[in-house]
Amino acid sequence: MLRLDAIRAQIAPARARLLAHSLYARMASLDDVQRFMESHVFAVWDFMSLLKRLQRDLTCLDLPWVPVGEAEVRFLINEIVCGEESDVDPAGTRISHFELYLRAMHEAGAVATAISGALASVRAGGATAVALKKAGVPLGAAEFSAETFRLAGQGKTHEVAAAFTFGREDLIPDMFMQLVTRLSREHPGKLDTFRYYLERHIEVDGGHHGAIALRMVERLCGDDELKWQEAGRAALASIEARIRLWDAIVATLV
């Protein structure tokens, strides 16, 4: 835990800046939430690629199957994958968190053209870098996701794990939840799913999955001091990237 505490201390100033970001005070209307969602959805999307990279590295996804790595680590990553890819919606129906977010965008009236275009491009075999350029993705979101996809494709496993663990969606201040709750009352039926998504992520990522992810980082770094240093830098970079994304979203608000 001492080394995890060292990473927490290393990222604490940036994390405080993120939680106190002007974005939250600037958002006041349903239109503002729509603009936020149109960029933030890309962070929800690329987050899954970090997770799938970890699953690829830490479990066996090939044929024929053979045991890979430590059973404890396999258990940790598979449990997170299960929750992210097949959680439940408010009615108890199985759904991934990303698909839940897309539903929330549709319900809120946010424009999903860019994320739909990016997904279509990737499904057709295109590279993510090309998809982000051609789909009309907001610049800040495109830069954020490009950086995430680079890490998912080229980073070391423990670096990916650190970014995944410390740059998660539980970094949401109370004032943002209060805003969404108020707007949900003012616009009945528009933000119910988005509110559920946020509450679910705070509950899951800040609780059980967060604890699992921390254990995963510990197992991957072990007693290797260099790995711990690289993990700390990756964690800090993930939060700094999120701050830049928030900066870009603020610039789109009227």
Count the DSSP helices: 13
Distance, first to last CA: 44 Å
How many strands appear in the DSSP assignment?
Answer: 2
Strand content: under 5%
Model regions low in confidence, pLDDT < 50 over at least 5 residues: none
Write down the overall geometry. Answer: globular
Which value, in Å, is the CA radius of gyration?
Answer: 18 Å
Please describe the biggest sheet, giving its number of strands, its sense, and whether it closes into a barrel. 2 strands, antiparallel
The helix content is over 70%
Look at the structure and give the mean pLDDT: 93
- One letter per element, helices H and strands E, the order comes to HHHHEEHHHHHHHHH
How would you describe the overall organization of this protein?
- There is one protein chain.
- The protein is 76% helix and 2% strand.
- The protein is built from 13 helices and 2 strands; from the N terminus they run ααααββααααααααα.
- It has helices spanning 2-19, 22-26, 30-58, 71-85, 97-108, 113-123, 128-134, 139-154, 157-166, 174-186, 192-205, 208-221, 225-252; strands at 87-88, 94-95.
- The chain has a two-stranded antiparallel ribbon with strand order 1-2.
- The longest helix is centred in the N-terminal third of the chain and has 29 residues, at 30-58.
- The protein is globular.
- It starts with a helix and ends with a helix.
Q: What attributes characterize this protein structure?
A:
single chain, 254 residues, mainly alpha, two-stranded antiparallel sheet, 13 helices, 76% helix
Layout of helices and strands:
Layout: H1 2-19, H2 22-26, H3 30-58, H4 71-85, E1 87-88, E2 94-95, H5 97-108, H6 113-123, H7 128-134, H8 139-154, H9 157-166, H10 174-186, H11 192-205, H12 208-221, H13 225-252
Antiparallel strand pairs: 1-2
